[in-house]
Amino acid sequence: QAAAVAENLTKTYGSGETTVYALREVSATFDRGQFTAIMGPSGSGKSTLMHCLAGLDTASSGRVLIGDTDLSGLKDAAMTKLRRDRIGFVFQSFNLVPTLTAKENITLPLDIAGAAVDKEWFDTVTQRLGLTDRLGHRPSELSGGQVQRVACARALVGRPEIIFGDEPTGNLDSKSSAEVLSILRGAVDDFGQTVVIVTHDPRAASYADRVVFLADGQVVSDQSGLSADDIY
Ligand code: ADP
Ligand code: ADP
């Protein structure tokens, strides 16, 4: 069974002569235990597709399934619960809570859900992301790259069924980028999670199982087994 499906998604902005088509009848299936990178030029619809898949935005037509749940049928409360229980987000707008420490931010989704924190996994994730000695710091005391890695740790620590990322390596140096990509790879290989990220980072192709290319709101290529050299 697929982890997520986009069916004939069309998203328009504006109306009449000024209508912008961000997505045109996009269909894609994201299998469980698969790591997909979505690439393409700026303005090709990558963020819009990601936001529709993650239930953060609604398409003008078409539908999105997470597992066998049709998002268009969900009321706000059910959507919030689905996002909280089943989806991890690594987005550019990190939404870290400024008054909480890195550690508290990382475990916040689990604390809100009343779920236990797997201490061993927490230690593994924070260690691999180089956060071990930053856990007591608040976001304002962290570098941009550290803030981004905290957001990544927060998305991973509860082992959600599906992880969505929007430029998860966007502001990171190459060492941190490699750590983030390899930990996402590990989420798939070790825990069977599903990962879908939007990225401009050619290195992501070497970690992903599949690269979906968008142009002008359409899927123009969908390939498996690419490496970074195929993108550069
Ligand atoms: P990408 O993530 O590939 O850069 P986006 O999904 O952000 O592309 O945008 C796709 C298209 O939709 C672009 O032409 C963009 O200008 C347009 N667009 C995105 N968001 C809005 C918005 N809120 N209002 C109007 N147009 C938008
Ligand atoms: P972009 O990638 O185009 O810059 P953002 O990442 O800033 O877009 O986020 C776009 C929308 O998604 C915003 O409305 C933001 O509030 C929402 N969003 C981002 N991250 C999360 C999150 N972790 N949980 C809920 N909503 C989020």
UniProtKB/TrEMBL annotation:
<dbReference type="GO" id="GO:0005524">
    <property type="term" value="F:ATP binding"/>
</dbReference>
<dbReference type="GO" id="GO:0098796">
    <property type="term" value="C:membrane protein complex"/>
</dbReference>
<keyword id="KW-0813">Transport</keyword>
<keyword id="KW-0067">ATP-binding</keyword>
<dbReference type="InterPro" id="IPR015854">
    <property type="entry name" value="ABC_transpr_LolD-like"/>
</dbReference>
<dbReference type="InterPro" id="IPR017911">
    <property type="entry name" value="MacB-like_ATP-bd"/>
</dbReference>
<dbReference type="GO" id="GO:0022857">
    <property type="term" value="F:transmembrane transporter activity"/>
</dbReference>
<feature type="domain" description="ABC transporter">
    <location>
        <begin position="4"/>
        <end position="232"/>
    </location>
</feature>
<dbReference type="InterPro" id="IPR003593">
    <property type="entry name" value="AAA+_ATPase"/>
</dbReference>
<dbReference type="InterPro" id="IPR027417">
    <property type="entry name" value="P-loop_NTPase"/>
</dbReference>
<keyword id="KW-0547">Nucleotide-binding</keyword>
<dbReference type="InterPro" id="IPR003439">
    <property type="entry name" value="ABC_transporter-like_ATP-bd"/>
</dbReference>
<dbReference type="GO" id="GO:0016887">
    <property type="term" value="F:ATP hydrolysis activity"/>
</dbReference>
<dbReference type="Pfam" id="PF00005">
    <property type="entry name" value="ABC_tran"/>
</dbReference>
<protein>
    <submittedName>
        <fullName>Putative ABC transport system ATP-binding protein</fullName>
    </submittedName>
</protein>
<dbReference type="GO" id="GO:0005886">
    <property type="term" value="C:plasma membrane"/>
</dbReference>
